[in-house]
Amino acid sequence: MKGIMKKNLILILIIFIFNFNSFAGVELVGTTSSNFIKIPPFARAVGMGEAFAAISDGTYGLYYNPAGISSVLGFEVQLTHISWFQGINYEFFSIVTPPPFFEIGKLGIAFAWFQVDEMDKTSELPSYEPSDLETTDFDLYKLYKFSPYDYSIILGYGAEIQENLTAGISLKYTSENIDKTSGSNITADAGFIYKMDLNQHLLRLGLTLSNLGPELKMDKIGFEPPKILKIGISDQFNLFSNKLLLASQIILQVDYDSLYSFGLEYWIQNLIALRAGYKLGAFNHPTFGAGVRYNNIQFDYAFVKYDELGDTHRFSALYSWGTPPIKLKVNPYVFSPNNDSFLDNTSFFPLLKAKEKVISMKINIFDTNGKNILAKIPVTQTSAKEIKWNGVVSGIVLPDGVYQASLETTYETGVSESEKIPVEIDNTPPEMSITAEPKLLKPGKKESLIIPATFTFYANDKNKVSKWQFVIWDNNKKVFYSTGGNGEPPLSLIWDGKGNSGEYVETGQIYYYSLITTDSVGNKAQTPPQSHVVLLKEIKLTYSSDALFDLGLADVKISAYSILKEMKKTINKYPDSEIVVAGHTDNLQPAGIRYKDNFELSKARADAVKFFMVNLLNINEKRIKTEGYADTKPIASNDTEEGRSKNRRVEIIIKSTIYK
After folding, report:
1. Domains of the chain with bracketed CATH
2. What pTM, to 2 d.p., does this model score?
3. 3-state secondary structure of 426
């Protein structure tokens, strides 16, 4: 959809330009109103052949392209005087300021005054024959003197509507006054400027539609305003370490032929500017200009010769002050410069306007109190969107702490500094401990750990634990069991002695265990491995009743024989152990009529498994005891089918006697 809209807009623009140009021509000269507003006021722009639609920065935008108004850093005021031919004077005053109630964009206001020298108001002559005019005393027909004048008041606003694209609009009140006759109207200008940095070249494209509005009427006769379309492009880059600006522009106008402009500006040490331009099409002539800048003050001059009409001179004075607000963002806020290839750096992101006007930029690193500057990180590319920092100051990584950082930017008009933002260095791993219970201590023997054992974990980090791992090694230092997860470890973990391979620990052997944690910035810690002789108190083998029995019955299914046979290998490792077979059910009434309640059903199922163990696995009957617990010992919720399925089980508990 966006692509279709974009193509439609381009098509509309092409059609508009074609139609706009089709009405232009010298035959329409003199048919429009307020033609004084077509006289370019600013000396800098005129010196460049008026190729300014893509530049229009600051106060210039109030005349050439309102999108450029937003490029003012803080405040800007400009005054121009034009010494026009035939004793005509033209004054133009403009100012741009930040809006009073919001931070987006810039506001501008301008006042233009155009005045002609005094002329005589005369009555009608009795004859206009050449022979009569030669003898006519014109002084007899003079009534009084008057001075025609025009003026306009311009109010403009420009803002960045997305990165590198600015838009603007201006409203213009224009008044024409000739003797006792006057007329006025309100027109509008609209424009866009798109900027891009390409291989250290600042490219700008500009488009402006000017003088859109109703007729200006004088003595009930209406005159259309001089509608104008300007399209321009500019390129700014360094040449011999000085700034060179090249620009071109096409002007399409309804009341005259098209006009093409080319111009250049070259600054020497940012103090003296040389300008030249050429205009061709409707008329052909070169333009010349120069400027001088001292701190925030700039004076400009332009000269244009209009053949038979004479020479024209423009003088402009510009003063700018203030700098735009800037911001600094950091991500991540916390980092750990410990060379582990994880969050070893943080990135600063400068948020600033008018990057093309930045002279220098740096990031200040303050101490944890935010008072003393520890380091100044220069930013060599003022167009950089991201600046990385590895926490190093004077060749050494700063100790852990919350530091402050700010962005300091030097513009032509002064220095802006952002608010300080916190950034934290954290190279400290989590604080941890681990304990295991229950333990057995016999006289003259090493303390032993009874399995099943409960391991209690403690892990704390100011920037949170992001993952944990609990590892148990056998006597050969091979991983026997491990578990873990994201976030903080559980407060405790009950381990039944089963390893990851399904084998159980060997009673009487030494095993080692440790807790490993990592915080959110990658700092890793491990508790010192602890060792204990383990004594296996019991082994619990759990079988699903749904796999062993049909619904409501206690007869072991033939298909379950292969499942139950696997228990013999484990039982044979502990020939002197006692065995308890325990049946468990869910909380639903048994299906059918054979068993009146779950106690009977669970006990019958335990007895059936015992029968299987005695008769098929040849286990001594005297070692086996059966219990039926019904639904009194659930391991999951009975509110769901999944939970009830887990509760329907048979447990075979192999109790060791070695620790007694």
Report:
1. 2-126+148-321 (2.40.160.60), 327-425 (2.60.40.4070), 431-536 (2.60.40.10), 538-655 (3.30.1330.60)
2. 0.68
3. coil
